[in-house]
Amino acid sequence: MPVLQARGVTKTVGSARAARSLLVGVDLDVQAGEVVAVLGRSGSGKSTLLHLLGGLDRPDTGRIIVAGHELTAQRARALARTRLRHVGFVFQSFHLIEELSGAENVLVPARLPGAPRGGEKRGRSLIDGLGLSEIAGRRPHELSGGEQQRLAIARALVNDPELVLADEPTGNLDQENGAIVLSLLRSLGSRAVVIVTHEPEAAAIADRVLHLREGRLHLAPAAGGLRLRETA
To answer: How are beta strands 216-219 and 208-213 bridged, if at all?
Structure first.
C-alpha cells in the first residue's frame, strides 16, 4: 500500500466570479522510498497541493490517505495527531524559532503532546548524522541558510514520519547549499518524499517528476538525469 494516496482532490479559491480552480481531480500515489517532484510555475497551486497532502488544509472534494490514515475523514484533533506522527514538513523559509537553539528547534515536535516516544534520542542522532553537532547550540540568526535548512530537515524527521513534504526547499539557498539539502532529501531511505518546486534542478533528484498545469498533474517526459517511474 502506498504511503500517500490522493484521489480526486479538488480545491477552489475565491468565490462567485472571482473563483479559481487550483486543483482539479488530482490523483497521486507515493510509495515508501520514493521521491516525487511536482514542478509548476508560481501560482500554479503547488504549495496548496502540498498543504492538502499534509493535512494543513482540506480539499473541497477527494480523499487523502497517509500511512493508512484518511486525513479527509478526520476531525481536527485526530488530524493534528496524524500530522505530528506521520508527516514531516520542510519549508522554503525554514520556520525555525529564533528564541531557541538549533537543537531545541529540532526537538520541538518531539515534545508536543501525542508525539511518539524516543524523540530526544532520535533528535540527537539526527543532529550528529547530519553533521550539525558543532552548530546545534547556536540560534538561527547565527547560522547560514544551509545550516538552518538542515536543522529544519532534522526537525521534520524527529518523530520518524513515513511521509516528508518539502515546499521549495532550496528556494532560499545558494547552489552549493541547495545541492546539500537535495542530497539529504534524496537519502531519506524508506520514507516517501514529495518536493514541490519551480526549479528543474531540484526536481532532478526525483524518481518521478510531475508537472502541475491547469490544476492537473502530468508525468514529465523522460530526460537525462531524471529517474522516472510510471505513475501508480
So the answer is: antiparallel
